Amino acid sequence: MSEFTFVEELITAKLGDAKVFVEDMTGTRDHLAITVVSDAFKGKLLIEQHQMLMDILKEELKARIHAVKLQTMTHQKYEQSQQG
Hints:
Elements (H helix, E strand, L loop, with lengths): L4 H10 L4 E6 L6 E7 L8 H18 L3 E7 L1 H9 L1
Helix pairs in contact: 1-2
């Protein structure tokens, strides 16, 4: 079980089809690189996709998380990235 399960659970509660990958960027467990794969991002601008995630994470950003680096993509884009 990941120590960042709480992040994964927050995101998947709102984006049911999401695959969530969380990395600790600094070893301090409060600077996170978060990759989210979801078809909820289809047809949305990158800024809209990131705003969706920031809205989901806003309470944690006030408490446990200091900074995030976000990467978002649809399932199709993710599958393509895994092939190359």
